[in-house]
Amino acid sequence: MKGLLRRAAAALMAACLVSLSAFSVAFAAEEGEIPFATEGTPVEDENMVTMIKQTAMQLLGLSREELLVQQAIVEDSGDEAMTAMITALLDAKIEYGTPRAIDYSGAQVNQVEDGTYTVIIPVTYNDGQIRYMVNVDPFTGYMQVAFASGTGEADNATLGDQMKEAGIYSAFGLGTVFIVLIVISLIIAAFKLIYNAQEGKGKEEETSAPAPAPVPAAAPAPAPVPAPAPAAAAGEDLMDDTELLLLITTAIAAYESVPANGLKVRSIRRAKDARWKRS
Cα separations (Å) of 262 from 176, 244, 248, 253? Predict the structure, then answer.
């Protein structure tokens, strides 16, 4: 997680640096495309100012169809200067579209070092404000046209002002990076809280679930019932052996009229299987 956070911070820092450098390069490229000087002494002659401003407005007022016609004419004549001017106007029509507002009163006319006049007119399009610039040579009638983004205030800025502006942009970039890092940290912390909440919810569900009914233990096998002792046979004489012996002796003596004292008594025991009963 820490490695991911570091990579995200490095990527955001690189993006900020690239965006700042791209802004500077694009600004310099646009300024470098202007083929004539724009800074000079403000013109105080009202007639000259009005004439140059009206000339610039007439060129800006040409429609796309009119510019196409003029482009075909100047290309056939071989006038490279006029061809470049018409091409610049036509490209602006294609790229920016129709102007939404023109700050005619805010137009500035300067006389540059080579004696030519440059008029700068702020024009607002759908994509923002554009500086429409026309350079006019009053002696030859040679004209050049250029478009640049922005208000042009950076042209007169000193090195200190430019460094101050660069510091402001850098501060904004670093602030953006830190804000994004804070947001990423909060998101990571939220992930941890979500994980803990889900884990606690799972534990609660496990606790609230009813415990399964215990499986009853198998009943112990019944003890073997001892077999009942065989019942005594019906009519079996259960008298003691001595009594039986006396009884038999008395009976014999009575039958033979012999005194019981002269008899020899032998013990008679009962057989276990009692075969005589079955026979």
Answer: 145, 18, 14, 9
* pLDDT tens profile 180-235: 989 888 888 888 788 777 777 777 766 665 555 565 555 555 555 555 544 444 44
List the beta bridge partners of residue 102.
123
- Sorted by where each begins, the domain ranges of the chain are 33-156, 241-269
Q: Which helix (H) or strand (E) holds 248?
A: helix 241-256
* 8 A C-beta contact, residue 256 and residue 232: no
For the record, the structure tokens of 157 come out as: 């800025």
Residue type, 193: L
Select from 3.30.70, 3.90.20, 3.10.450, 1.10.3470 the CATH code of 33-156. 3.10.450
Q: Is residue 263 over pLDDT 70?
A: no
Count of Cβ atoms closer than 10 Å to residue 113 Cβ: 9
The answer to whether residue 274 scores a pLDDT higher than 70 is no
Query: To which residue do tokens 């496990």 refer?
Result: 206
> Which residue, 145, 131, 176, 157, is CA-closest to 17?
176
User: What Rg, from alpha-carbon coordinates, does the chain have?
Assistant: 63
Looking at residue 211, its pLDDT comes to 56
Look up residue 196 and give its two tokens. 């803990």
Residue 182 is inside which H or E element, if any? helix 159-208
The residue written with tokens 């009976």 in the block is 251
Q: Are 243 and 251 in contact (CB under 8 A)?
A: no
